[in-house]
């Protein structure tokens, strides 16, 4: 097995949720990520969070049909971890001039954009989860692209007009929760 096949083994393992491959990634690369975070105001627990979030990002990128690994898996993964940790430091407003480490990614901008999208999604999801179960389910169905007729049937509501009114009220409630959050301006 050549180096390129071995690197794609990790990508394939992530896509297929192969726990042996995921364990191998942790075993091989976690020391480097722990070192990265510790050298930059972090802890071993921070490193675990960074690894977890980075694996999710690699998984999401690898599932795209146009995905192509243009470097070694380690370089790619380390670069994502570096970006995740840098954004965490920046979000927590920890003073740091630059993250130590000299491995750079060609698509840092794309990863940064993906991190922003993930943070925005997580932010909105936490607000959605604060709604009551009825509003949560109704909006979830709406966001999944279901038509009002389908929502009425799925939720057993009395009619389309009632469902539309309720959806509107739930959306208003969600918007209020979002706008009240002090971090709201970070996601504009």
Q: Care to describe what's here?
A:
The structure is a single chain. With 188 residues, this protein is mainly α. The chain folds into two domains: 3-106, Rna Polymerase Sigma Factor, Chain: A (Orthogonal Bundle); 130-187. The protein contains eight helices and no strands. The protein has helices spanning 3-15, 19-38, 44-62, 73-91, 108-129, 133-143, 148-155, 160-180. Helix 3 crosses helix 4 (73-91), helix 4 (73-91) crosses helix 5 (108-129) and helix 6 crosses helix 8 (160-180). The longest helix has 22 residues, at 108-129. The chain starts with a helix and ends in an 8-residue tail after the last helix. The model is unreliable at 94-109 (pLDDT under 50).
């Amino acid at each position: 097995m050549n180096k390129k096949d071995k690197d794609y083994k990790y990508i394939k393992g992530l896509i297929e949720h192969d726990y042996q491959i995921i364990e191998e990634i942790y075993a091989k690369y976690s020391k480097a990520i722990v070192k990265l975070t510790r050298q930059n105001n972090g802890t071993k627990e921070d490193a675990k969070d960074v690894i977890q979030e980075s694996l999710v990002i690699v998984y999401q990128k690898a599932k795209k049909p146009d995905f192509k690994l243009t470097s070694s898996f380690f370089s790619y993964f380390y670069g994502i971890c570096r970006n995740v940790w840098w954004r965490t430091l920046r979000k927590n407003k920890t003073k740091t001039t630059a993250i130590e480490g000299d491995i750079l990614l060609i698509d840092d901008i794309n990863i940064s954009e993906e991190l922003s999208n993930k943070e925005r999604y997580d932010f909105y999801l936490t607000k959605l989860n604060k709604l009551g179960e009825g509003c949560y389910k109704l909006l979830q169905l709406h966001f999944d692209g279901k038509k009002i007729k389908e929502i009425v049937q799925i939720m057993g509501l009395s009619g389309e007009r009632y469902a539309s009114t309720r959806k509107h009220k739930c959306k208003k409630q969600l918007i209020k929760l979002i706008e009240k959050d002090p971090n709201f301006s970070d996601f504009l």
